[in-house]
Write a structure and sequence with these properties.
single chain, 561 residues, six-stranded mixed beta sheet, 36% helix, elongated
Length: 561
């Protein structure tokens, strides 16, 4: 029966594919792939093969006599390994599987590996187990003499390069004192690594082992046979992660082996390990800082934090302040504060003594802010950039406004000032306070004769965007009047009309709706309370042009746009 089952398998496995390792035309050892005919599956379903029973009841133990006897069973061996892995996975479906270093469960033996071992192992011997009734393969084990192809191959369990991690040392049995590795290293060995390889004649290797429930019996039978002879003193093998416990139960222990220790690679690995340790330390420090920050919040008050955010977000405040001061200098009373009066002393917290000094401080502040911004962005290239930052007189618009009011007050307190000059400075102060209303506060201003308002928002700043509205009062339009957050208005939109010149500084606007409508009118503020929008009163000129179809169309153009 065994012979018939073996020959039957050979008949349909004659034409197959695989791998080849041998010598080339120059007699040098080489490894290459040799293409065979198509590999064909066995004529029976592997998932129906029964598992081996205790003492191999109902099964036959075979000992293939030649390499060809193993070759003809290649696909059976491959599919048996896959089936064994599937059955083990189903058995452990409710048990957490042990993962390898890549976080993936170890794969069963592959086709190329099995074919390489069957082709290159010399000698090759072992056992097969087949079902007695059907002749189906239930298990196999192959042995050979341990061979290496490296001059500097070494058995050593105590070096880091051997790959025995701290987890392995805590979990598995291993050569903790290096005695077993030393015994292996002292064994006789002969051969040429560039020819037939370096052969260790007293060390046997389990090259292939696959079974359905009878792997332990196969390995025990193989070890018993080796013990009966005097050819080998040691048995070694390379185990997958899933098979470690199995081999430990059979008496095997983990032993280290290294070959071609590359000093550059070892240095690179050490550097990578150091980098990982530094990154881990940085992460721990960041977590500690975050925890401390949550535990010990910022000691500054909410008002202080609000003012800091306001200073950061209102980055163009210097230009606004300069426009206001320049407008005051054009005021009829502006000359009274352009230069400091004789005898005017600086008040507490006053930084400038007249409007000219305020403008100079704003100009210097703009340059200083640009310089500091550059220094902060260039700190990676210039380690001393922090020392090159300069301080500014005014930190925000509020400081500039407060100092301007102090300038006016100090000049009013100057000695030998006349009443006319004092009242002139007082009118200038009122004009200064009133000038800020131009930038909007709550609702559009209702200045007599001013019907148009421009609505702007900080989000439209990159495109210089705005919306133009015409405001109406209740008496003229017969409306109910405007509440604080509602107005009667009509929007005008930019449009090109035939025969009307249009450029970036002069745009024509047409009404969006024929009649005004009641609109909700509220200025937008950010989450932190900072104003994000405003309204500005503008003057317009009304003109008429011929629209499409020949009908006249009224349009407006903003003066001093």
């Amino acid at each position: 029966r065994a012979a018939h089952g073996g020959w039957r398998a050979r008949e349909w496995l004659v034409e197959m594919g695989g791998c080849y390792t041998g010598k080339d035309e120059n007699g040098e050892l080489t490894a290459r792939r040799r293409t065979f005919d198509e590999v064909r599956e066995p004529p029976y379903p592997m998932n129906e093969v029964p598992s081996g029973k205790k003492k191999l009841e109902g099964s036959l133990l075979l000992k293939p006599p030649t390499r060809e006897s193993w070759w003809c069973c290649l696909t059976e061996m491959l599919l048996l390994c896959n089936e064994a892995a599937n059955r083990q996975a189903r058995k452990n479906s409710n048990v957490k599987k042990k993962n390898d270093a890549d976080g993936v469960q170890s794969k069963p033996l592959g086709l190329e590996y099995i074919a390489d071992r069957l082709d290159t192992d010399d000698p090759i011997f072992g056992f097969m187990v087949r079902s007695e009734r059907e002749g189906w393969l239930q298990g196999f084990i192959t042995m050979t003499t341990f061979t290496t192809w490296h001059d500097d191959f070494m058995w050593n369990s105590l070096v880091r390069e051997a790959g025995i991690s701290d987890d392995d040392k805590r979990t598995y049995k291993w050569d903790y004192d290096g005695a077993l590795a030393q015994e292996l290293q002292n064994q006789q060995r002969t051969g040429d690594p560039n020819d037939e390889g370096i052969v260790w004649p007293r060390i046997a290797e389990v090259s292939l082992l696959g079974a359905l429930g009878c792997g332990g019996q196969l390995l025990s039978l193989m070890l018993e046979e080796l013990e009966l002879g005097d050819k080998y003193d040691y048995v070694v093998l390379q185990a997958t992660d899933n098979a470690v416990m199995f081999y430990e139960n059979m008496g095997f222990v983990r032993v280290g082996a290294i070959a071609r220790p590359a000093l550059e690679l070892m240095a690179q690995q050490a550097a990578e390990a150091q980098a990982r340790a530094e990154r881990r330390a940085a992460q721990i420090e960041a977590k500690r800082e975050k925890k401390n920050k949550d535990k010990f919040p910022d000691p500054r008050t909410s008002q202080e934090l609000f003012l800091e955010r306001k200073r950061h977000e209102n980055s163009a405040w210097r230009d606004v302040c300069k426009a206001v001061i320049k407008g005051l200098l054009q005021h009829p009373e502006g000359d009274h504060a352009k230069h400091a009066r004789p005898g005017a002393a600086l008040l507490p917290h006053q930084k400038s003594n007249d409007f000219t000094a305020v403008l100079e401080a704003l100009d210097e502040g703009s340059a200083a802010a640009a310089r500091n911004s550059y220094m902060r962005s260039n700190k990676e290239n210039d380690p001393t950039a922090w020392a090159k930052e300069v301080s500014t007189i005014y930190g925000d618009a509020e400081e500039c406004v407060a100092d301007t009011l102090l300038v006016l007050k100090a000049n009013q307190a100057a000695a030998e000032i006349g009443s006319d000059e004092w009242f002139a400075l007082d009118r200038l102060r009122e004009a200064f306070v009133g000038s800020w209303k131009t930038f909007g506060d709550a609702a559009p201003s209702e200045t007599p004769g001013t019907r148009f308002q421009v609505y702007v928002d900080v989000d439209w700043l990159p495109k210089r965007g705005f919306r133009l509205f015409e405001m109406f009062d209740e008496e003229k339009e017969g409306g109910r009047g405007c509440s604080k957050n509602a107005v009667l208005a009509r929007e005008w939109v930019s449009s090109k009309l035939p025969g009307v010149a249009s450029d970036s500084d002069a745009a024509s606007f047409l009404p969006k709706t024929p009649k005004p409508r009641r609109l909700a009118w509220t200025l937008r503020r950010g989450k932190d309370g900072v104003l994000q929008s405003a309204t500005i009163a503008v003057s317009v000129t009304r003109q008429t042009a011929q629209a499409k179809g020949g009908a006249p169309a009224e349009y407006v153009m903003i003066e001093e746009q």
